Amino acid sequence: MSETSPKLRAELEGIPTYKPGKPAAAGGPVAYKLSSNENPYPPLPGVMESVTTAACDFNRYPDMACSGLMDELSERFGVPLSHLATGTGSVGVAQQLIQATSGPGDEVMYAWRSFEAYPIITQISGARSVQVPLTPGDVHDLDAMAEAITDRTRLIFVCNPNNPTGTVVRRAELERFLDRVPSDVLVVLDEAYREFIRDPEVPDGVELYRERPNVCVLRTFSKAYGLAGLRVGFAIAHEPVAAALRKTAVPFGVSQLAQEAAIASLRAEDELLGRVGSLVCERKRVVDALRSQGWTVPETQANFVWLRLGERTLAFAQACERHGVVVRPFPGEGVRVTVGETEANDIFLKAAEAFRKEL
Ligand SMILES: Cc1ncc(COP(=O)(O)O)c(C=O)c1O
User: Fold this and answer.
1) Element (H or E) spanning 288, and its range?
2) Which one of 128, 171, 321, 352 is most buried, counting C-beta atoms within 10 A?
3) 11-48: string of b/e by CB count within 10 Å (b at 16+)?
4) pTM (2 decimals)?
């Protein structure tokens, strides 16, 4: 037998691995997981019922076109069916977008630090990542991004609100940026946390997409709608882009369980958005408490807060675990903490206060 291994693509070397938020230890001292920006509420009974009914047929393939869900989305957002595409979570759709636009020799641009999947899915495609540092206030530097565009730029992610900082770009600055982007470069407005925004100056990407054929909006059912474990997200984009997304989709990627749960969730939107409202209240409580403890917390419009702790990041994350909450450290940079159930937030605030006193 030959000793050589199968030839793999050179681009895969050195790809950072996606670090999922650490789970809460079973039976251990840690009780709450605040490391993955999940929704802490359990599924609504009606959504659960739609999933259990769909489960009776999982010997069958799902509806590949996601027809029922596409109809609901088309109605809900007032967009034609031909402008919609679904995928296995919005990260799946983001990967489809890169596959559809970018390959070796091309550039994919995004702010950094931002959503950790961007460098991974860019590198897999063979394209080059162009990372534009956030401003000192942890906000997208849209002027620097516009200046970094070259004739090789194919796709630009604008993560709004930004993961992990929670910061936003507002209407005027985003429109000014979009005006500067060549019309053959795709701008992807990643709005995974859209439903948590309360700042009226933050534009709804769907409004921007309507006037601009090179704008695509990414949304997910994982956060506000609480379906992270079922993997379904979608894009709204003009026809050539949406059609390309359907070509690059994994066939049958979105399960029937996910499709039915998404439909049921859209129909239960009022109740789900009520839960989002409670989390937004908790967010304010957490941010206010942290600030009164003396922390600098960037303004967040998402379901998480960001503490720039630099070298103290890992020590802080360990201190949180000792108290009973798992947070998400980015070593050397900072900690992202999801706003969870009240008890979990209380534990986190106690941990933050104790850590602060020891500084
Ligand atoms: C900014 C952003 N985009 C996309 C995603 C992907 O979410 P999903 O694939 O669950 O839809 C996440 C998840 O954390 C995110 O933070």
Assistant:
1) helix 269-293
2) 352
3) eeeeeeeeeebbebeeeeebebbbbbbbbbeebbeebe
4) 0.96
Residues of the chain with pLDDT under 50: none
**How many residues are recorded in the chain?**
359
DSSP classification of residue 22:
P
Distance from the alpha carbon of residue 94 to the mean position of ligand 1, in angstroms: 9
Alpha-carbon span 120 to 266, nearest angstrom:
31
Which of ligand 1's atoms lies nearest the C-alpha of 90? Answer: 11
How does pLDDT run across 34-53, given as a tens digit for each residue?
A: 999 999 999 999 999 999 99
Contacts (Cβ under 8 Å, ≥6 apart) of 345: 282, 285, 286, 339
Cβ neighbours for 274, distance < 8 A, ≥ 6 positions apart:
none
> Are 79 and 236 in contact, with CB atoms under 8 Å apart?
yes
What are the phi and psi torsion angles at 325 (to 5°)? -130, 140
339 close to 303: Cβ distance less than 8 angstroms: yes
**pLDDT number for residue 346:** 98
Q: Which atom of ligand 1 sits closest to the CA of residue 88? A: 9
